[in-house]
Amino acid sequence: xxxxxxxxxxxxxxxxxxxxxxxxxxxxxxxxxxxxxxxxxxxxxxxxxxxxxxxxxxxxxxxxxxxxxxxxxxxxxxxxxxxxxxxxxxxxxxxxxxxxxxxxxxxxxxxxxxxxxxxxxxxxxxxxxxxxxxxxxxxxxxxxxxxxxxxxxxxxxxxxxxxxxxxxxxxxxxxxxxxxxxxxxxxxxxxxxxxxxxxxxxxxxxxxxxxxxxxxxxxxxxxxxxxxxxxxxxxxxxxxxxxxxxxxxxxxxxxxxxxxxxxxxxxxxxxxxxxxxxxxxxxxxxxxxxxxxxxxxxxxxxxxxxxx
Amino acid sequence: xxxxxxxxxxxxxxxxxxxxxxxxxxxxxxxxxxxxxxxxxxxxxxxxxxxxxxxxxxxxxxxxxxxxxxxxxxxxxxxxxxxxxxxxxxxxxxxxxxxxxxxxxxxxxxxxxxxxxxxxxxxxxxxxxxxxxxxxxxxxxxxxxxxxxxxxxxxxxxxxxxxxxxxxxxxxxxxxxxxxxxxxxxxxxxxxxxxxxxxxxxxxxxxxxxxxxxxxxxxxxxxxxxxxxxxxxxxxxxxxxxxxxxxxxxxxxxxxxxxxxxxxxxxxxxxxxxxxxxxxxxxxxxxxxxxxxxxxxxxxxxxxxxxxxxxxxxxxxxxxxxxxxxxxxxxxxxxxxxxxxxxxxxxxxxxxxx
Lengths: 308, 354
Description:
The complex is a heterodimer.
Chain A (H helix, E strand, L loop, with lengths): L2 H9 L19 E6 L2 E6 L14 E6 L5 E5 L6 E4 L5 E5 L8 E6 L5 E5 L4 E5 L5 E6 L13 E7 L2 E6 L5 E5 L5 E5 L12 E6 L5 E5 L4 E5 L5 E5 L5 E6 L3 E6 L3 E6 L4 E6 L10 E4 L5 E4 L6 E6 L1
Antiparallel strand pairs in A: 1-2, 2-25, 3-4, 4-5, 5-6, 7-8, 8-9, 9-10, 11-12, 12-13, 13-14, 15-16, 16-17, 17-18, 19-20, 20-21, 21-22, 23-24, 24-25
Chain B lengths: L2 H9 L19 E6 L2 E6 L14 E6 L5 E5 L6 E4 L5 E5 L8 E6 L5 E5 L4 E5 L5 E5 L24 E6 L5 E6 L17 E6 L5 E5 L5 E5 L5 E6 L11 E6 L5 E5 L4 E5 L5 E6 L4 E7 L2 E6 L3 E6 L5 E6 L10 E4 L5 E4 L6 E6 L1
Antiparallel strand pairs in B: 1-2, 2-27, 3-4, 4-5, 5-6, 7-8, 8-9, 9-10, 11-12, 13-14, 14-15, 15-16, 17-18, 18-19, 19-20, 21-22, 22-23, 23-24, 25-26, 26-27
C-alpha cells in the first residue's frame, strides 16, 4: 500500500496545522539552500510581493518572458493575470474584462504574446503583452468530447506549431498551426504507453521532442513531433510541469521534488525529496540565468530558486 | 483577518494533491541547508530507519538520551516508544505490554528512565529501558477539575474541526470532532493532571510538568514524586497559560514554557515568578535547551533560537509556511543536532549541525 494511504488508514486524519497568526515576517535573515549534483539554489518563498488585496489567490501558472519578467495566472476574476519584474515587484494585473473562467497554465511566445489555458472555459487564449485578446482556440464554455478542448492545462508556442496539453477532461496532446488550425492530436485515457491520465503540461525540447506530464500516472512521456513515443520516465511524484534551459530538462513534481534530466534522459540532479513541502508547487518556469520560479497553488505564492 | 483565513476564503479549500507511487526515496541525494548566522544545519528527511510495519504512526514526541539515542513516542498501542541509535538504526520498541492510550511528550532522564505523558488518560508514565512500569503520576482516566470541556467550540473559532480520539468512562477509545478553541472552556487551574503534555527532570531529581490541554498549570514535583507547587491560570495574563504544550529547564534552573495558544514563551524560576515573556510565531510546540541557547519549534515552520541568559532571540531558521520544518516536537543531541517529530508523514527529520 502506498505510504500516504497507509498513514491515513492508521491515523484516520492527516495532521496538517497552519498558522492563524498574523506574524509571518522573520526577524532574522536566514537562508535555505538546495544542492544536488552540479545544481545549487537559494530558496526565496513569496518572491513576488503581492498587495493584501491580491495575496492568497491561488497562483496556478507562471511563465517568464525574454526580459525576465514573470507572468502568472491567479484564480481571481478581478486580476486573472499578474506581471512582476525581475526583482519580484508587481508591475500590474490584466485580463479582468476578458471572458476568463479559471486560468491554468501560461506561456510567453518569442514574439511576446501570451497564451493562457482556461480549464473551466475549455479554451485557450492568446493575448498581446498589454492584455488585448488576439485569438481564441476552442469553444469557450463548451467542453469537447475528444477534440480541443476539455479542461486544457497549457499551450506552448513553438516554431513547429502550437502544442497544447488537454487536460483534466481530455487525454490528448494537440498540435495547431500558427493560425490555430488543428493539425493533429494523440493520446487516449489509460495507463498504457501513449495513454494519459491528466495531461498537465507539455514542453518541446531542443531536439524537437515533446515532453508530456502525464500527471496522475506519475510519469513523463516523451514523443516525437508526430506523436511517436520515444521514452517514458516512470515513477515520478505527480509531475505537474516541465521546463528546459536548452541543456537540461526540469520536471516539477507536486510531491515536492524537481528532477533534472540531460538530453539523453539521464538524471542529473534531484532537488527536494518526497514530501518536501518547501518545493511543492503546481507549475514552474525558469529564466535565462537558470533561476527557477515555482507557482505554489498555496500560501507560498511564487517561490524563486536562485541559481548559485 | 489572518492570512490563513484569507487564503481559505478566497479558494474554498486548502490545496493538497499527491502522487500514487510507492517510491518515497530520492533517486539522487539532495542537500538541504538551513542557516542563520552561526547556526547552520543540514536536513535529513525521513531520518529514522523504520521497521516497515511501524512506519506511519503519528510521532507526537521525541527525546534524546545521554548516549545520543533517539526515542520517538508514537500513537500506536503495540509500539508506543521506539528507540533508535544515533545514526537512526532501529534498536527496539518499548512499552507494548503497557496500556498506553495516547502518548504525547517524552523525556529521558539522566538515569535513562523514560517519562512520558499520556494526555488522553491524564497520567504520566515512568518506565525503565525494558518497558517495566516504575511509577505512574496522576489518576488514570480521571482528569482534574478545571472546567475543561473538550467538545466546547468557541463562537469565534472558524478553524476546521479535527478528529480526536479520547477514552470514555468505560475505557473505550471514542472518536470525536473537536476544535482548537476547546481550551477556552477552562475556568481555573486544577490539580495534576488534565491532559498533561510534557515532563522534564531537573539535575537534582525534581520534575517540572506542563499541564496541559485541559489544564493551565506548571507543576513542580520533588524527587520523591510529591507535588511541591503549581502555578498558572487560564488566559493571557503573565504567568497564565493557553495550552502549556511543552517545557524545558535551562542551566539556571529556569523553566521555559511553550504557551502555545498565546504564541509566547514564558520563563519562570522554580517558585513560579515570571522572569521573561517572549512573543514568538504561531504555536510554539516544543522547546529544547542546551547550554547557551533555547530552541523553540513553531507550528508554522520556523525554529526560533533564544539566548538563555538574556532571553533575546538570536536566530531563526525557516520561514512562515516553511513546510519542511513544521513539527510537533523537537529534541537535540550532544553535538547540537536537532530531531523534529512531525505528526505527519514526514515522521522524523534530522537537522544536523554543521
